[in-house]
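note to self: dont lose this again. the chain is below, predicted strucutre after it. 123 aa total, dont forget to put it in the shared folder this time
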Amino acid sequence: MATITYDSLIIDYEIKEINNSKVEVLIFEGRIGNQNSYQVSEDLYNQLDHSIPNILVGLKKLEYINSQGLAFLLSLIKRVEEHKGAFVIGGVNQLIETIIQLVEVSDQVVIFPSMEDALSNWK
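---
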């Protein structure tokens, strides 16, 4: 697992094989705000393997996300839809869950209470 560190944000990143599918796993801890959102979006876009259609994100420890960070997550969801993959969220805190509900993300986005639940229920 690789760790990417910014001011007020840590992202753990790895590619896993789950039930014969490659999955990019991103676990966010901290805040995506004005001081780091552009760099986070740019770095992750360059880091991700765009040939892998499946993404699992852990947002339980993400305390805050600004509009640019949210736009980046939405672009990942769009990429997954275009590749007919799966976008799974393994845990969110109350604030992030409210934001996700407000933007009415695709029905293809599945939210589990934890990363463990998401991994054990991966299809």
